[in-house]
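Bug #2210: token dump truncated for FAD-dependent oxidoreductase?
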Amino acid sequence: MDDHKNAVRNPSGRGTKRAVVVGAGIAGLAAALRMHRAGWEVVVLERAPTRRSSGYLLNLHGPGYDAAERLGLVPALAPRDIGFFTSVLVHADGREKFTVPAAVAQAAVGDRALSLFRGDLESALYDAVAEHVDIRFGTTVRAVTQEPGAVEATLSDGNRLRADLLIGADGVHSRIRDLVFGPESDYLVELNHMVGAFPLDTVPEHVAEGVGTTFLGPRRTAAVMNLGPDRSSAFFTYRSPDPAAELALGAAPALTAAFGDLGRGVAEALRQLAADPADAYFDSVGQIVIDRWSSGRVVLLGDAAWCVTVFAGYGAALALDGADRLGAALAAHGDDLTTALDTWEQSLRPEVRKRQALARKGISRFAPPTRAHVWAGDLMLRAIQLPGIRGLVQRSIQRANN
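Reproduced locally. Full output below:
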């Protein structure tokens, strides 16, 4: 049946244009915001039944901060900024190795930076668009068909939506990519690591307030952050030769098997996870590598298109920047959709390639392959506290963000 609630308004370029955005995460909501401000009618489809509010910490600096500023998000995000916190490297039993003061990270990144929980960024985006676009939860796309003047999505509820543009912003396991570009196995490059992250219901007793503790060991990392009530969380990553087997175990059993020998803050976080695993994010780490991000009137955005992985630490920034650039390209080229999408992709491809390469190189920082690598990493972290070395690190970060 046709969707009469959102009847298409000339999806051939005459009158108000419509965009259907699949995915209500950072990339999808940012795209919805940018397209709405450009005068498009926007429908957002989200498979989950409700909004998600959990997730790990992310940083917006350099182009990521610039994109948030262009999208008008900084005033809403600034009160949610966690800021810089003290990092404590710990032994396996939780005893302190050494401390990296918050000032070290602040000096390296600069003032134009935001540290946020993923859910806080999603909430700010949602609040910016909720009254202006049609957001439908518990809805997926079953089929996509295209014709010269429009794209049509058949929805899980039986309705059909016709639009000028369909944006697949539904993550690394994108349904839109499967339907239009081919199966995930054609584009997913597994990095043979797992990642888990979850909020802590209670403040960790063994971690001082305003502190993040990190255990770095061969082939694994565990971090526990005490940022106060409702602001504390845990993050884990480890090497796995068989990611599918780890996913079959589930978050709590797999993370407990990989980190159950660790003490204090990590042990406490794992107990909380076992008691309530519902809000945990747990997945294999892989990059999406695809030759083209658009096909006709369908375009992929964010992790669905490129997924740089958590090892790059730049996924949210690229999602915001990619959405903003997409809106700008569509506005600049009017009804010439092909040129708009080509121009957008050409402008963003170099940055994505750079970030994916940095992620592959960065695996050894998150999961050092040997004890010698752990020792070298400790030495580097101690060294960056020296004024001269700190300046070199700051310049290196600035070059990476330009």
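Output looks complete on our side. The first strand starts at residue 18 and ends at 22. Marking as cannot-reproduce; reopen if the truncation happens again.
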